[in-house]
Design goal:
The complex is a heterotrimer of chains A (96), B (248) and C (202). By secondary structure, chain A is mostly beta strands. Chain A is built from one helix and nine strands. In chain B, strand 1 and strand 2 form a beta hairpin. Chain B has a six-stranded antiparallel beta sheet. Chain B has a six-stranded parallel beta sheet with strand order 10-9-8-7-11-12, with helices on both faces. Classes of the chains: A mainly beta (96), B alpha/beta (248), C mainly beta (202). Chains A and B meet through strand 2 and helix 1 of A and strand 6, helix 5 and strand 12 of B. Strand 1 of chain A pairs antiparallel with strand 2 of chain C.
Chain lengths: 96, 248, 202
């Protein structure tokens, strides 16, 4: 339909860059968690996702199809975490 | 989860600057004293938060340059359009305090426990920082794992840790490629890392090596794709991307 | 409260600015930071279109050439990003959305911009008419670059800049409001910088 191409962009980060943010929110190491894209089914570790931080929130996208996997909006004491683009997210439970 | 300590809550804390040391004209190593630091793994990073007197806040992540067991050190490259890296490389001085949280990351780490697996480290520019931690860690624990570092730098004066990398210890190998400028009589590699260069210096895929690639995003994409083309399984190529030139 | 980092001043900060031009909580920069929530799309101009959609149908569509033939204006505006930077006196070449929406019969009260890459932003119709919103294709005397939303983006400078959708491909006319990308994730539905409407509930 359209001949739009996307990226690659030199500024794109990966999931390593949100390791701190995710650990703050989930209470455990998340970059080794395994995430499955709800759009294309690609499964990879969070560290390998495309990550965009120069935005109003942190946006995590699928490395295979670029669909949004997760969006995190930080707001002083609270955070809005949307994982709608993930069909599955397997991670070790936080140790107490 | 070998090698991971129990994770405490990740909170911001104040760290004191105990030493600053120039590495190249645009790169500096900063040593920190962090009260209650529980240790880190080779390859992990820290988040840094700076606050201006008018309340403006900026956060960035930096790889830890020191080995587990050593005082926390960061090595920071000054980026032309950056806002945090010019501060860290030019303004920050001994006795200053900055906010940090960490250590962070469990993917781009190497604990040195597996002596049988050859390890290939591929660095673009300041992407060498986590590998310095890994090489020092390897020497400290006396690991015999075969480790080879391929380090792409613009020129010899841009090579970070040059003196240290001349003698990485324990038989680790360091191979340079200089992309922009080579000294007279340079016998090493020239030009960017590509499949041909990797074919010449990377461990053969048959030896089931593990690869770590770190540097600017464009560099990491090219190198990781080239390694896969040489037969490295994608899941054996661990990557960490620093973004573009203006992000620091 | 975080301790002040001695000697840290942040991004290339503009000095001596009239404080009356700076919304609360904003910092004036001389840079033009690139903000992006996804990969930069590149659409060849010969296949690019701008469309107004209504009830699932395309009510009107313009080619790049047709958009460029419409009357345009030079717009100078202060822009305010919700990530706290403000840039003063930005200059744009743009077609008023009045010109575009005036070519379609409708009773809509809201619009939602749609873009290459799937980004969306919602706006009341009243905020994109009356000479307050544009389709911008020129910046600072040159074609709008892809990293800043080129070939064309919305320009709605009286609201936080996430409403000025980059890589915009059209407007959907709506009778009832429907949140866009950031509005779904907790950002304010309207986004007035002067009332500091950053997050839902502000």
């Amino acid at each position: 339909m359209t001949q739009t191409s996307y990226g690659p962009d030199d500024g794109t980060l990966d999931g390593n860059a949100i390791g701190g943010l995710l650990r703050e929110l989930f209470g455990t190491e998340m970059t080794t968690a395994s995430g499955t894209c709800a759009t294309c089914g690609y499964t990879a570790q969070v560290a390998q996702a495309l990550v965009y931080l120069d935005a109003p929130g942190a946006v995590m996208r699928c490395r295979a199809c670029a669909a949004v996997l997760a969006v995190i909006v930080r707001r002083q004491a609270t955070a809005c975490v949307d994982l709608e683009g993930l069909a599955a997210l397997d991670y070790p439970p936080p140790s107490s | 989860m070998a090698g991971t300590a129990v994770l405490g809550r990740l909170t911001w804390q104040v760290a004191g600057v105990t030493a600053v040391r120039p590495e190249t004209p645009s790169v500096r190593t900063i040593e920190l004293v962090v009260p209650g630091w529980a240790g880190h793994q080779a390859g992990q990073h820290l988040d840094i938060r700076l606050t201006a007197d008018d309340g403006y806040v900026a956060e960035r992540s930096y790889s830890i340059a020191s080995a587990p067991g050593e005082p926390v050190a960061l090595t920071v490259e000054r980026l032309e359009d950056g806002e945090v890296s010019p501060y860290l490389t030019e303004e920050l001085r001994v006795g200053d305090e900055i906010e940090i949280r960490g250590p962070i990351g469990g993917y781009f780490v190497w604990d040195g426990a597996d002596a049988a697996t050859p390890v290939l480290l591929v660095a673009g520019g300041s992407g060498v920082v986590p590998f310095r931690s890994m090489l020092r860690h390897r020497a400290r624990i006396g690991s015999t794992a075969p480790v080879r570092l391929l380090y792409s730098a613009r020129s010899l004066p841009d090579v970070i840790y040059q003196a240290e990398l001349e003698r990485p210890g324990g038989g680790a190998e360091v191979i340079y490629t200089l992309t922009r400028q080579q000294p007279e009589g340079w016998a090493g590699h020239s030009g960017r890392v590509d499949a041909a260069l990797l074919g010449a210096v990377a461990w053969p895929a048959e030896r089931l090596p593990l690869a770590y690639v770190c540097g600017p995003t464009a560099f990491v994409e090219i190198v990781s794709a080239a390694l896969v083309s040489l037969g490295y399984p994608a899941e054996r190529v661990k990557t960490e991307r620093y973004g573009g030139a203006g992000a620091g | 409260m975080s301790p002040v980092s001695r000697g840290f001043h942040g991004r290339h900060r503009a000095r001596g600015v009239d404080p009356g031009r700076v919304p609360p909580g904003q910092y004036v920069t001389t840079d033009f930071p690139v903000l992006s929530a996804g990969p930069t799309p590149r659409t060849p101009l010969e296949s690019w279109t701008f469309s107004i959609r209504q009830a699932g149908e395309t009510a009107k569509s313009w080619s790049w050439q047709q958009i460029r033939e419409l009357p345009s204006e030079a717009v100078t505006a202060d822009i305010h990003c919700v990530t706290k930077w403000t840039k003063l006196d930005t200059s744009w070449q743009a077609v008023s959305l009045d010109v575009l929406l005036g070519q379609v019969q409708h009773q809509a009260r809201y619009v939602r911009a749609f873009c290459d890459g799937g980004y969306t932003a919602n706006l009341p119709l009243a905020d994109v008419t009356g000479g307050r919103a544009w389709l911008a294709y020129g910046y600072d005397g040159a074609p709008l670059q892809p990293e800043h939303g080129g070939p064309a983006r919305l320009l709605v400078p009286h609201l936080y800049f996430w409403k000025s959708a980059k890589w915009v491909r059209g407007l959907e006319l709506l009778a009832a409001d429907e949140p866009g990308f950031w509005e779904r994730y907790g950002y304010h539905n309207y986004g007035d910088p002067w009332r500091e409407q950053r997050y839902s509930g502000d």
